[in-house]
């Protein structure tokens, strides 16, 4: 008897292709797993509407489930409630930091309309808060670019959303 | 909800996204090149969500809607299809349009149509970034050097007559959008940017109903080339 836990354990191996230390569970992209008879339904939500990683994530989910003998797989995408960095697991945040990407703040500071606001972001390398934003937009939709004034490390910040 | 309206929302996002993407590799500095193309990506993502919904209702596909319709079928506002011009013109258009989208999606996320409400709720978070980024740039350029201020004045003169259409409802729009919050936003940012608030001028319209400027055809020619040359190609 297959359980949703079996499926979740398998899906733990599906990573975000842009941030390959995070699984779709760490990221909060996996919303639900349902077993309908022989069919496995995986419900996911995109981080950003245009995130090009979503097609890759869909393909990888299907592939790993087929590898484990689940041939009847349905992947459903939901948009509401909209994804937020609040759904990122604590473990995910630790993994991000170890990878060199500053994790999102627990309390969003600049997800609002106030202009010229800058968050105090901690450098993932030396832990200093003496950092500056280089650009609000980074290598992917979910990140912005920072530099540490203390150790000069340039780094990505997984911005709150 | 009228399907034409859903296609209109999709076309707006796709055409502006496609326009902005022309900056890829040509931005004034690397960070802003990345910013404007990230905004493109968000817009194209939003367009896909709308096209997928419209396609289900029309028995079509998102690709067919994006790549196999001609200019007369496109329902985007004229503002979205105008040439990029210089950085000032691109920034100002983004500011006008994102401020409009912000109000629109706020209203749309209350829609009884759950699918549209979900797309609006999702997109609104992205648009918030776009409004903030473009507002900051309007201020930076307006209140910048003599050169940047002058370019902003030119951009206002060119783009302002295309802002009226955003708030003139087409036959498929059920609820007209209140222009007041948009106007307030523009006045607030322009004041900060030391830019004059434009007065009443004659406003262009027609895009929402398929009557476009000569610029749209060129966008479609480039955007649709692959699908037309290799029908049903996927990658």
Would you mind describing this structure in some detail?
- The complex is a heterodimer of chains A (161) and B (235).
- Chain A is α/β, with parallel strands linked by helices and 161 residues long.
- Helices cover 23% and strands 22% of the residues of chain A.
- Chain A has 4 helices and 7 strands, in the order ααββαβαββββ.
- In chain A, the strands form 2 sheets. Chain A has a 4-stranded mixed β-sheet.
- Chain A is elongated, with a radius of gyration of 17 Å.
- The N and C termini of chain A lie far apart (38 Å).
- Chain B is mainly α.
- Chain B has a single domain (3-229), classed as Ferritin, core subunit, four-helix bundle (Ferritin, Up-down Bundle), CATH 1.20.1260.10.
- Chain B has helices at residues 3-21, 30-58, 62-67, 78-81, 87-108, 114-142, 146-159, 180-192, 215-229.
- Classes of the chains: A alpha/beta (161), B mainly alpha (235).
- The interface between A and B is medium-sized, with 27 and 33 residues.
Offer a concise description of the structure.
The complex is a heterodimer of chains A (161) and B (235). By secondary structure, chain A is α/β, with parallel strands linked by helices.
């Amino acid at each position: 008897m297959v359980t949703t836990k079996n499926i979740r354990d398998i899906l733990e191996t599906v990573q975000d292709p842009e941030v390959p230390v995070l699984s779709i569970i760490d990221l909060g992209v996996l919303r639900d797993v349902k077993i309908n008879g022989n069919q496995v339904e995986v419900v996911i939500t995109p981080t950003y509407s245009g995130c090009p990683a979503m097609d890759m994530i869909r393909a990888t989910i299907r592939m790993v489930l087929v590898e484990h003998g689940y041939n009847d797989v349905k992947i459903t995408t939901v948009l509401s409630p909209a994804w937020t960095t609040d759904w990122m697991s604590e473990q995910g945040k630790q993994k991000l930091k170890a990878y060199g990407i500053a994790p999102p703040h627990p309390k969003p500071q600049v997800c609002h309309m106030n202009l010229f606001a800058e968050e105090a972001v901690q450098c993932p390398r030396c832990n200093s808060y003496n950092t500056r934003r280089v650009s609000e937009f980074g290598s992917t939709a979910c990140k912005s670019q920072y530099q540490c004034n203390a150790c000069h490390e340039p780094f990505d910040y997984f911005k709150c959303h | 909800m009228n399907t034409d309206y859903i296609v209109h929302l999709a076309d707006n996002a796709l055409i502006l996204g496609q326009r902005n993407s022309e900056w890829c590799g040509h931005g004034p500095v690397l960070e802003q090149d990345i910013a404007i193309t990230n905004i493109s990506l968000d817009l194209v993502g939003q367009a896909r969500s709308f096209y997928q919904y419209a396609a289900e209702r029309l028995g079509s596909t998102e690709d067919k809607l994006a790549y196999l319709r001609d200019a007369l079928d496109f329902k985007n506002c004229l503002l979205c299809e105008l040439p990029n011009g210089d950085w000032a013109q691109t920034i100002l258009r983004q500011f006008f349009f994102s401020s409009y989208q912000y109000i629109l999606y706020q209203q749309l996320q209350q829609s009884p149509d759950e699918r549209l409400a979900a797309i609006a709720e999702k997109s609104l978070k992205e648009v918030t970034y776009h409004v903030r980024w473009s507002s900051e740039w309007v201020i930076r350029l307006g209140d910048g050097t003599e050169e940047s201020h002058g370019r902003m004045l030119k951009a206002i003169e060119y783009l302002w007559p295309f802002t009226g259409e955003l708030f003139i409802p087409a036959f498929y729009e059920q609820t007209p959008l209140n222009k007041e919050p948009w106007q307030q936003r523009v006045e607030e940012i322009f004041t900060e940017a030391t830019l004059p608030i434009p007065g009443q001028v004659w406003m262009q319209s027609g895009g929402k109903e398929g009557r476009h400027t000569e610029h749209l055809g060129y966008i479609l020619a480039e955007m649709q080339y692959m699908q037309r040359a290799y029908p049903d190609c996927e990658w």
